[in-house]
Design goal:
The complex is a heterodimer of chains A (221) and B (223). Chain A is mainly alpha-helical. Chain A is 82% helix and 0% strand. Chain A has 9 helices and no strands. The N and C termini of chain A lie far apart (55 Å). In chain B, helix 1 packs antiparallel against helix 6 (132-162) and helix 1 (14-46) packs antiparallel against helix 7 (174-185). Chain B has helices at residues 14-46, 51-65, 69-84, 90-115, 119-127, 132-162, 174-185, 188-222. Chain B has a single domain, classed as MetI-like fold (Orthogonal Bundle), CATH 1.10.3720. Helices cover 79% and strands 0% of the residues of chain B. The chains are: A mainly alpha (221), B mainly alpha (223).
Amino acid sequence: MNFDVGVVASYWLVLLKGLGLTIAFTGGCALLGSLLGFVLSLLRMSPSQWVKAPTWLYVELFRGTPLLIQLFWIFFCFPVVFRLPIPPYLSVIISLTLYMTAITSETFRGALKSISAEQHDACIALSLPPQVKIVHVIFPQALLRAIPPLLSNVISLFKESALISSVGVADLMYVGQSISNATARPLEFLTTVGIIYFVVAFPLTRLVGLIETRFLRRFAY
Amino acid sequence: MGYQFDFSFLQGSVEALLKGLRVTLELALAANVMGLVLGFVLCLLVMSRWQIVRWPAQLFIEFFRCTPALLQIVWFFYCIPMMVDYFIDPIAMGVLALGLNLTAFNAEAYRAGVQAVPREHLDACVALGLKPWQRTLFVVLPQALRSALPVLMTNGIGTLQQSALVAIVAVADLMYVAKSLATEAYRPLETYTVVALIYFALSLPVSRLVHMIERRQDAVVQR
């Protein structure tokens, strides 16, 4: 067995393109999913059972089944159920967004819950109306605290997005696998792809730690 | 919605599904045992006094945490046999890939638990003349295990779900059976729905249990 790094060099542009697609999908779905997740977390706090139960079921369903099966389900079943031919790109965006929505709604819920009871009491003591309390007291603190876990969610979405290769979207994983099949050099290419993922994800995980220790200490507590 | 659901064709494939389920459970359980044991060992290595031990262990963790699980599995299936020039049983390989992935995540979970062991307990171990291995095994491990339990269990369910990825490298787990049934019968909707519900039914009780344990731990802390 010989490890030949030279082969990888001639394919770097293709790999970079794959990485671009991976980042585009991750970024887009993370943004959409975070917004929807925030709305969902508010719905989950609702006093009505009729709102709470379906949102609970949604979150548990998406967290309790493999993302791969969600991808396949939407990829194969949306066209059949809704009689709408949707391109793979769109079905992938839908499934990643739905998944991200489920996990971020939990993050926001945790952040909203972490606001201590004293804050709520203080709002009553100051006789703030509910909307002022929510917009000016609860949200700013909760959103700041949600930043590190939210970023972790984005990192895990970045990693999970490798699954979209299995429905034929040409992301980094797909590109890496097809080159390694075509050149019969899995060792070099799969390792390279791994390193690329690592190089993107690792600084982000450090950033999460940095935000937690530096930024939040100063502003949110 | 003009689609007619028809689950009847699945009656003939109950056996195939159960077989797949068994492989999935085997994979998930074996990987969890591996992750629980090696995770604690790795956690100790990361907290070691010597840089030369700490560094590679940390690198191992970061590599598994910062690359996609799918890539790890594909890498293991293609590259390990090439490197050692020996064919390894696919299921054993799946367990190895999933187990090492879980090991990295569990090591992080244990770490918080180990750090939370009060200084006094360690002093007490010295006073009682316990050997280092006794201290680790009988004093540190039980406490770390207890406080890390919710995270360990959540990681465990995560591995159950990640185990679906081995279908991509053609290990005949539940997901793989689902894929082949769906293409055979031209009924992906029913097949994937049923299989998704099976995974859901496996994870839901555990995630409920995690909630319960977390609530009890919170209650203890508040007291």
